[in-house]
Specification:
The complex is a heterodimer. By secondary structure, chain A is an alpha+beta fold. Helices cover about 45% and strands about 20% of the residues of chain A. Chain A has four helices and six strands. Chain B is of the alpha+beta class. Chain B starts with 5 loop residues before the first helix and ends with a helix. Classes of the chains: A alpha+beta, B alpha+beta.
C-alpha cells in the first residue's frame, strides 16, 4: 500500500486510514484545492480534478449547511456500490478536506469511525503554524499545485 | 426516543447476562437503535459488528458453507453475538458466563418480530 504525501506528518495517519477502512481512494487537501496526500490515483490530472471538485463541493455544502441549518454540514456521503465520503478535518494549522471512495469491502460506518481517528491523528500530528503564513495567492496557486503533484507522482 | 426496535431491544437486554443490544444496518454499519451501557460506543460497535458479520458471511460462502445466520465472538471479558439478515444485524454484548443458547433463541425471536 503506497500513500504519497507532500508533507510527511500526514503519511502515517493517511496510511492507517486506508489500511483500516479498506478505502479504494483517499485524498487530503487544503480548502483551496491544493493536494497534500493521495492514495489510489495513478494520474496527476485525476488528482487535480478530484481536488478541484472536492474543494468546490465542500465549499458549496458548507454554505448550504449554514443557510439551512445555521452551521456547516459535517460530512457528505453518496453512492451505493461505489460510495464517496467527504468531510473536514480540523487541526491547529486550519481545516483540511478529506475525500475517500470505498466499495462493499468497507462500509459507511467503518469509514466514519476511521475518519474520526484520522481527524484526531492529524490534529495531534500537525506541526504548529508558522508565525506569518503566506497567503494562498491566485498567482502562486498553479505553481504550488504543480509542485505538489510533482512530489506525489515522483517527478520532483 | 422510542423506535419500532425499542421494545425488542429492551426485551433482549433484560435477559440474564446481556449487557447491551443493538440493531444496525448490515451494509452501512450504522447503528439504528441500541440499548447500551455508559462507556460503550454504539457507533464503533455497530460499524465493526456489521463488518465482522459481512466478512463471516463472505468467508462461509467462499468455503461453500452456505448462508450465515448466527455468529459468536468470545473475548476475554465477554461475548459478542450477532444475528444477521440481508438488511439488518442484531448485536448482543453479553457476559462471559451468559447462556448463549438462550440468548440465541431470544435473538431469533427478536429477529422474527423485526421481520
Amino acid at each position: 500500500m503506497i500513500t504519497a504525501s507532500v508533507e510527511p506528518w500526514v503519511d502515517e495517519p493517511m496510511t492507517r486510514f486506508v489500511r483500516d477502512a479498506g478505502a479504494r481512494i483517499a485524498l487530503l487537501l487544503l480548502p483551496s484545492g491544493q493536494v497534500l496526500a493521495q492514495f489510489g490515483f495513478t494520474r496527476a490530472v485525476d488528482v487535480m480534478a478530484a481536488c478541484a471538485l472536492a474543494a468546490a463541493i465542500q465549499a458549496s455544502s458548507q454554505e448550504m449547511g449554514r443557510m439551512l441549518n445555521g452551521k456547516p454540514f459535517s460530512a457528505l456521503h453518496a453512492g451505493r456500490t461505489r460510495q464517496f465520503f467527504l468531510a473536514e478535518a480540523r487541526t491547529a494549522r486550519g481545516p483540511y478536506i478529506f475525500l475517500t471512495v470505498f466499495d462493499d469491502g468497507s462500509s459507511l460506518g467503518l469509514v466514519r469511525m476511521y475518519f474520526d481517528e484520522l481527524s484526531a491523528s492529524l490534529a495531534a500530528a500537525a506541526p504548529p503554524l508558522a508565525a506569518n503564513p503566506e497567503p494562498v495567492l491566485a498567482a502562486n496557486f498553479e505553481g504550488e499545485l504543480n509542485k505538489n503533484l510533482a512530489v506525489l507522482f515522483g517527478r520532483a | 426516543m422510542s423506535t419500532q426496535f425499542s421494545a425488542v431491544l429492551d426485551a433482549l437486554t433484560r435477559q440474564r447476562g446481556v449487557r447491551a443490544s443493538m440493531v444496525a444496518d448490515a451494509a452501512d454499519g450504522i447503528a439504528i437503535d441500541s440499548n447500551l451501557q455508559f462507556g460503550q460506543d454504539g457507533n464503533r460497535v455497530a460499524a465493526l459488528s456489521a463488518s465482522l458479520y459481512r466478512k463471516a458471511r463472505q468467508s462461509a460462502r467462499a468455503a461453500g458453507l452456505g448462508a450465515t445466520g448466527f455468529m459468536q465472538l468470545e473475548a476475554e471479558d465477554g461475548r459478542l453475538c450477532i444475528l444477521g439478515g440481508d438488511t439488518l444485524v442484531l448485536v448482543v454484548i453479553a457476559e462471559p458466563d451468559a447462556n448463549v443458547g438462550l440468548i440465541r433463541i431470544e435473538m431469533r425471536r427478536a429477529a422474527e418480530q423485526l421481520a
